[in-house]
């Protein structure tokens, strides 16, 4: 079975290196959003695969044609991010709007502030693509794929950090169907980097449930 990985906002395909190494999956497909100069590479396979998304990368997955996907795994993921009338636990849209307005003047500053909040273990280098980054923030403000997530039922699995500074436990749980397989673990917003062994173990357990 192929694995498809989709990174989150302001990262790139290198985000997945620790987890891919832990999973030892030679057929891993690392999609690229194009936030740091590399051209976007977002083609999904025309054969069976498991899709694994981190944060906004999982939100993006839910909006795609997933006809060949056999199961979804969300790591620090969600089906909706921004607060709304029927989603009171979401992140206030004004926070995302402020980030978007600052991007054109100080893209490196916005990214540095975001990464400092996430507390990443490794730095990201490259020239920020403001257009792609703005598009990503717009998705976080506007996309709501809770209905799409609900259709996956027990074929959706999620792992979230109980100490995630960006994604409160209530937001993560409210995003996904009751039948989904999920758990909270001690950790922040970058579980695939900070806890690749734990993530690999969770993915293996999720696949066992799909078998």
TrEMBL record:
The opening ranks of the lineage are:
Bacteria, Pseudomonadati, Pseudomonadota, Alphaproteobacteria, Acetobacterales
Which organism was this protein described from? Kozakia baliensis
| InterPro entries the record matches | AB_hydrolase_fold
State the name under which the record lists this protein: Uncharacterized protein
């Amino acid at each position: 079975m192929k694995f498809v990985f989709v990174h989150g906002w302001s990262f790139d395909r290198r985000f997945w290196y620790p987890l891919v190494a832990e999973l030892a999956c030679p057929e891993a497909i690392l999609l690229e959003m194009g936030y740091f100069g590399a051209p976007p590479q977002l083609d999904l396979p025309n054969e069976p695969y498991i899709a694994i998304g981190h944060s906004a990368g999982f939100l993006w997955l839910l909006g795609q044609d997933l006809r060949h996907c056999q199961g979804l795994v969300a790591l620090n993921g969600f089906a909706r991010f921004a607060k709304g009338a029927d989603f009171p636990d979401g992140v206030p849209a004004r926070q995302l709007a402020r980030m978007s307005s600052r991007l054109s003047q100080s893209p490196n500053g916005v990214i540095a502030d975001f990464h400092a909040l996430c507390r990443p273990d490794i730095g990201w280098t490259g020239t920020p693509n403001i257009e792609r980054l703005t598009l990503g923030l717009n998705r976080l403000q506007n996309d709501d794929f809770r209905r799409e997530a609900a259709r996956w039922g027990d074929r959706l699995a999620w792992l979230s950090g109980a100490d995630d500074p960006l994604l409160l436990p209530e937001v993560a749980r409210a995003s996904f169907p009751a039948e989904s397989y999920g758990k909270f673990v001690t950790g922040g917003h970058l579980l695939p980097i900070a806890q690749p062994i734990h993530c690999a173990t969770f993915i293996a357990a999720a696949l066992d449930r799909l078998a």
